[in-house]
Amino acid sequence: MAHLVGVTRKFAWTFEKSSSGSLRYFLSQRAMLRRAFVRTRPLSLVRTISSTRSILVPYEDDIAFSSDKITKVKKYQPPVRAGKRGIDIVHDPLYNKGTGFKEVEKDRLGLRGLVPPRRLNMKTQLEKLYRLFQEEADPLRKSIFLSELQNRNETLFFRLLIDHIEEMAPVVYTPTVGQVCQKFGSVFRRPRGMYFSSADRSQFAPMMYNWPCDDVQVIVVTDGSRILGLGDLGVNGMGIPIGKLALYTAAGGVDPKKVLPVVLDAGTNNEELLKDPYYMGMQHRRLEGDDYWSMIDEFMRAVRHRWPKALVQFEDFSSDHAADVLAAYRLKQLCFNDDIQGTGATVLAGALSACAQVDTPLREQRIVVLGAGSAGLGVSTTLLQGMLQEGLTVEEARQRFYVVDQFGLMTSERTNMTSGQTFFARTDLPDKMSLVDLVKEVKPTMLLGLSAARGAFTKEALQEMAKHVAQPIVFPLSNPTAVAECTAQEAYDWTNGTCVFASGSPMPQVNFNGKSYIVSQCNNMFIFPGVGLAAVVCGASRVTDRMLYAAAQALTDCLSPEEIANGQVFPSVRNIRDVSLKVATSVVRCAVEDGIATNPPEIRRGASLEEYIASKMFVPVYRSVVE
Ligand SMILES: NC(=O)C1=CN([C@@H]2O[C@H](COP(=O)(O)OP(=O)(O)OC[C@H]3O[C@@H](n4cnc5c(N)ncnc54)[C@H](O)[C@@H]3O)[C@@H](O)[C@H]2O)C=CC1
Ligand SMILES: CC(=O)C(=O)O
Ligand SMILES: [Mg+2]
User: Fold this and answer.
1) CA atoms within 13 Å, Cβ hemisphere of 487
2) Where are the catalytic residues (predicted)?
3) What is the pLDDT of residues 506-536, one digit of tens each?
4) pLDDT in tens, 152-183
């Protein structure tokens, strides 16, 4: 007998239980439902599927999943053509289902005998994997476990990651990804992504054809020169593009077949790696000047040639090149720098939420930024743009910033400053003032850490800040956790529980005076997946400042009333897939308005832009595989 599980205006989902107990799902025209059947179901059992909030996934796998993590699902998952059969399927993580192949599939694809006889459905596979994940001794072992899963079965990997995103994001991403990069040589199992080195010069364009996908949509590229706050890690920085792209799929719903992690190996200045007999990159010092630039240019040209529509995300380039590389390509090609622009948009969103918490607009904040590198200056520039939106002039806004580097306050007395540093350099205070003296002098309302200097937000500095401001906004944003400017517990202790806090890497809940506080994570992971999804969906020709501003606004709007009541300034990571969809929707709208969407969405009557974008998101379900 058929059971009704949901209806839309036109369609109805039903399921039937077979004699063996397995469930089969059917999608039918609603009008074709047997009238008697409809009449006999009590109305309360008929759950109307709101088209954006549909939680029922019609799994080819016979499981009625009701995970709220995959909220936006396609109603129908067509079969997928693998272009291969037999053992080649089992060895391809994009099509492999491990013990999950159905009997018909085993026959169709010549798999009989190549996989164990008993089939475990996806739900059982996930339960088993999650248990094994929990049994791994430490975060590094957990990370190896997940990357091995990704190497053999991407569908299961992404399903597990999405279902446990709050617990697993810190493993595939910061902070554990930092450890992975530091130990890249010993955790390396098999290659993922592409390496373009100084030894490959003049061959980048033909090399692009070694990559099997003709339709790459997102590339994350690093030159390994500044990996998180861990310095120059050369090709070992590959962990970062891999981790970022895992979030592109888990949070942003970008198809994992269509992403490409890249390291541009321009050498390394890391003395240990230069001497390490097992180092896997080029053992020469970093290329400089024209040699470096021609390598970047060859890479960008080769991308344009092979995948003209691909989005290139520049990641963890040291500040001597980051802003210049972005400036050279941002008007020519679809690209953005995550550390400068993604972080800028993220911090703007968090700052606006914090301003609402403390009931003082951004234009009235006095902001000390510790760190004058790409991230510190990118954030300062974006916050300044936010102040312009609130009516300040450029000069008025500029006066509200105090940028500090490792020597202290940056002033116009310095020489050899970058243009960004020159813009923010003060003219009214002594050069190289210490953080504590600066806090005493200017009584900042907001303190942002992008310095990778562990402990730089000292007890003295935070206590001093709290003397002058009722609710100091304190964001130690450096990654990984080991280099954060302070911990959440320290910030609450030293400001007597008054601070509004967010950290770059996740930190545990804080207890202060018998009250517990949820710690917000301020990380560009809330922006880049949505920006990437938007660029892919609407065929954006470039990433504009307005698109990033739209992303920041959408992120601010994602806080739920409960999160605001908890004092959070960022949504919980468990909602990151919904957040990314909202960010993408706002960005697509902006791109269309600005006329830079080459493939503007064609939306069915009665549907929304958000539904349209949701329908384009990758969902990790087992689709029927055909050769
Ligand atoms: N939460 C997030 O989403 C993001 C966090 N970051 C983090 O920001 C940090 C910096 O990144 P970048 O700007 O790209 O690096 P960078 O190397 O370009 O800049 C670091 C800056 O910090 C300054 N600095 C070093 N020691 C200092 C000290 N003791 N006191 C004050 N300033 C000091 C340096 O002079 C330099 O200006 C990294 O740890 C990175 O992980 C970067 C991007 C996003
Ligand atoms: C989050 C990030 O992009 C960084 O720490 O570099
Ligand atoms: Mg980064």
Assistant:
1) 10
2) 173 (proton donor), 244 (proton acceptor)
3) 999 999 999 999 999 999 999 999 999 999 9
4) 999 999 999 999 999 999 999 999 999 999 99
CA of 484 to the centre of ligand 1 (A): 10
Domain boundaries, the chain: 68-172, 193-333, 359-382+393-518, 526-616
- How would DSSP label each residue in 219-283? EEEE-SSS-TTS---GGGGGHHHHHHHHHHHHTT---GGGEEEEEEE-----HHHHH-TT--S--
Helices (H) and strands (E) in the chain, counts: 26, 21
Distance CA 55, CA 316 (A): 37
Question: Which helix or strand (DSSP H or E) is residue 2 part of?
Answer: strand 2-7
Q: Under CATH, to which class is 526-616 assigned?
A: alpha beta
- Taking residue 23's Cβ as centre, other Cβ atoms within 10 Å add up to 15
Please confirm, yes or no, whether 432 is among the known catalytic residues: no
What is the pLDDT, as a whole number, of residue 210? 98
* 149, amino acid identity: L
**Is this complex scored with an ipTM above 0.95?**
yes
- CB 479 near ligand 2, within 6 Å: yes
* Gyration radius from the chain CA atoms: 25
- Closest residue (by CA) to atom 1 of ligand 1? 504
**Chain position carrying tokens 């490409």:** 260
Amino acid at 498: T
Structure-token pair, residue 6 = 């949901």
Does 193-333 match 359-382+393-518 in CATH topology? yes
pLDDT value at residue 604 = 84
Q: Tell me yes or no: is domain 68-172 CATH 1.20.1370.30.
A: yes
Residue 226 marked in a binding site: yes
587 phi and psi angles, rounded to 5 deg: -70, -40
More confident residue, 52 or 351: 351
- 485 pairs with which residues across the strands? none
Q: From the CB of 316, is ligand 2 less than 6 Å away?
A: yes
Convert the pLDDT of each residue in 269-303 to its tens digit. 999 999 999 999 999 999 999 999 999 999 999 99
Across 333-347, average pLDDT: 98
Using the mean position of ligand 3's atoms as its centre, give its distance from the Cα of residue 624 in Å: 37
CATH superfamily of 193-333: Malic enzyme, N-terminal domain (3.40.50.10380)
Q: Report how far residue 614's alpha carbon sits from residue 325's, in angstroms, rounded to the nearest whole number.
A: 33
